[in-house]
Amino acid sequence: MTADKKSHKPATRALHTGGQGRAPFGVVNPPVVRGSSVLFASMAERDAVERKVFGAGDRLPHYGRNGHATQWSLEDALADMEGGQVLLAPSGVGAISLALLSVLSPGDHLLMIDSAYGPSRKMCEGMLKRMNVRTTYYDPLIGAGIADLIEPDTRAIFCESPGSLTFEVQDIPAIVQAAHARGVLVMMDNTWATPRGFDALGHGVDISIQSLTKYVSGHADVMMGCVAANGEVFEALKATHRQLGLHVSPDDAWLMLRGLRTLDIRLKQHEANARVVAEWLAGRDEVARVLWPGLPSDPGHDLWKRDFTLACGLMGAEMATPDDTAMAAMVDGFELIGLGYSWGGYESVCMPAHAGKLRSVSAGRFRDPLFRLHVGLEDPADVIADLEAGLVRYRAALGG
Ligand SMILES: *Cc1c(COP(=O)(O)O)cnc(C)c1O
To answer: Ligand 1 pocket test: which of 159, 214, 222, 372 has the largest number of ligand atoms within 8 Å of its C-beta?
Structure first.
């Protein structure tokens, strides 16, 4: 039985794709297959395997670096979710680098969203600059106006929606249309919504990128990323993936597959909890604005509603009186909410930030410091109680 029929709903397929029914010993989940060397019975068998692997691109046991059954199970399950072929990278940043290095060559020009995840900017200022790839940062709210920034050498547009820290929603269909009219590729960091919340490839994006570390893992215990694409773009990704020697361990792939099985139900609960917390935060005097497109008052709400099917648990909040000392007083005293960078696990975490420091063309639009909050699967009443005590400390630290 392979229950990966397209007639099933996505939530059903998420449970039944990727090796289900094929595991040995009759167990439900695929085994962890560890191995570097693969043994061949004869030279004839080796030759036949190599013809299939390098000729037709078949996935057969050949050499550990190319993965075994465990990684392939995860790839299959993710491919079903993404609607494209998938490659795994050791981290989300690894997946971003893989996407950029697969399509950019010396002399190319890249349009990078100004609200990009910090390390995406570092890649532009570091390795890409050394490779003689020029980057122009563009306003996250640019929409169809992106057409004016496309130059003859522009090879790719990098999107991330909603943006890191400030959660601007992009008009992805408008950007895709402008890009494709000029033969430019669109890649998108889709970590916030996952493909279950935003169908990146279905909206015309050429390369969908996820940090699986976040929601697909869901348990703050494994790091990984993936890229998804189709056709020639996928072949370019695959060649670069092979040349860079990217590999993820079967144990990590197994954990990731375990996380993936409960993604749907977790995302629904994160959204429900986040809505309760976002509405509460929006009503507080200490908070100037909650940055979460799931709120009808959010400037990105209409675009989000048009293109997305869910809002996740990650949001930002700008303070009425921004202050680093008061922010520290609030965050340092949290009992439940952790202070940490990664998010998408079952637990609530918070991280204050100065978003403007990471911006080139859209700095000064937000009050710094703000804080980013990931609402976990705790009872939201407990998260709110922790936040409430924190806001009392915040006000006290401001001196009344
Ligand atoms: C965390 C994150 C990444 C990087 O993922 P890692 O697995 O930590 O390397 C990329 N993009 C976004 C939006 C993220 O939040």
So the answer is: 214
